[in-house]
Amino acid sequence: MISSDKNNILKKVISSMKEKSSWVIVCHENPDGDTIGCGLALYSLAIRLGKKVSIVGKDPFPDRYQFIPYSDQYLQCLDISDNKINDLIICVDISNESRAIKGIEKLTKLGSLTINIDHHGDNTKYCSLNLIVPEASATAEIITDIFIDGDFGMMDNEATALYVALSTDNGNFRFSSTTAYSHICASYLLYAGAQQSEIDDFVNQNLTMLTLKLWGKAFSRTEILANGKAALFWLREEDIKSAGANLSAVDGLVNKLMRIKGVNIAVLLCELDGTNKLSIRTRSPYSAREIASVFGGGGHIQAAGAKVDGDFSKVLLKLRAELEKQCV
Ligand SMILES: [Mn+2]
Predict the structure, then answer these.
(1) 227 Cα to the center of ligand 1, angstroms
(2) Sign (positive/negative) of CA torsion 127, 131, 132, 138?
(3) Alpha carbon of 249 to ligand 1 centroid (Å)
(4) How far apart are CA 263 and CA 308, in angstroms?
(5) What would the DSSP string read from start to end of 193-251?
(6) Nearest to 115 by CA among 145, 149, 139, 92
(7) Pick the residue with more confidence: 162 or 207?
(8) Cβ atoms of residues 162 and 41 within 8 Å
(9) Which of 135, 1, 53 is nearest to 10 (CA)?
(10) CA of 118 to the centre of ligand 1 (A)
(11) What are the backbone dihedrals phi and psi of residue 251, each rounded to the nearest 5 degrees, phi first?
(12) Domains, the chain, with CATH or none
């Protein structure tokens, strides 16, 4: 729920959406269910409102979300600065400009109205309007508020997109980020036509055998560290390529390590495209964001990530040492 001090920003966001005739919706790099679901729900709203609209992101669209209506409209784009000043730029679920698309800060400085709708506590507020709600378990909760407060109504395809966003970001309502309000949003989306079991089939029961075997490879490499408090596993570039997969195939895989009894820090290290990607999950009192920051990354307190250039083996060594250090 949006606190009263942020109500003003919410109102400004809604009035800018009503007023501007051309929207560009931006999703974050390695797009997940939250950024994609929120982006596509807003895309559908824009069409209904008669806007000229596009939805963009710097990385390809993930296969598992292709069932969501309008997913075929997503365009890959590396620089947004050639957009017109009078376009409304809406960034969804993006904590900083480098996770978005180049050019947003430049457009903001030139006078473009840029909107940042997000729930990451470490958001750098890089837009002209920043609606940041760290209490939300997913950006989808904030977008649902926008639909309700803007009196836009909600079509079933929009409810589907937002339910995907909500349920993937809070681990199907299991993570500690889930609140009573997350369930109120879910209830609203179900009333608006989201089919929860069908969505779960598309999102979670849709693996290829090769992906499952790729997960198996990661599981077989599980290392328990710090007297059982931390666990990690890893995948090399050739593992991922030989499964015909990309990083979206391991989206959420790290959560499975948290199922080990006693483990309160879990890390997946993936080597792909010449860089090393860390996905980190923790339970209190450990901070995933703090561990990510050691590696130049960030995110939520209990779910964060980092991209680390350089030799895979060195990153793995540094990671093992850091996990031992965290648990002293
Ligand atoms: Mn999110």
Answers:
(1) 31
(2) negative
(3) 18
(4) 24
(5) T--HHHHHHHHHS---HHHHHHHHHHHHT-EEEGGGTEEEEEE-HHHHHHTT--GGGGT
(6) 92
(7) 162
(8) yes
(9) 1
(10) 7
(11) -60, 120
(12) 4-203 (3.90.1640.10), 209-326 (3.10.310.30)
d(CA 5, CA 279): 33
Cα 170 from chain centroid (whole Å): 10
Q: For residue range 165-224, what is the model confidence (pLDDT) as tens digits?
A: 999 999 999 999 999 999 999 999 999 999 999 999 999 998 889 999 999 999 999 999
pLDDT, tens digit, 9 for 90 and up, residues 87-111: 899 999 999 999 999 999 888 888 8
Sheet with 303-309, edge to edge strand ranges: 223-225, 230-235, 265-272, 275-282, 303-309, 298-299
Cα 308 off chain centre by:
19
Tell me, in angstroms, the distance from the centre of ligand 1 to residue 35's CA.
Answer: 6
Q: How far is CA 289 from CA 206, 227, 301, 327, in A?
A: 30, 22, 5, 15
- pLDDT band with cut points at 50, 70 and 90 for residue 286: very high
43-74 pLDDT tens trace? 999 999 999 999 999 999 999 999 999 999 99
- Give the percent of the chain with pLDDT over 90: 88
Ligand 1 centroid – CA 328 distance (Å): 30
Structure tokens at 75: 């365009």
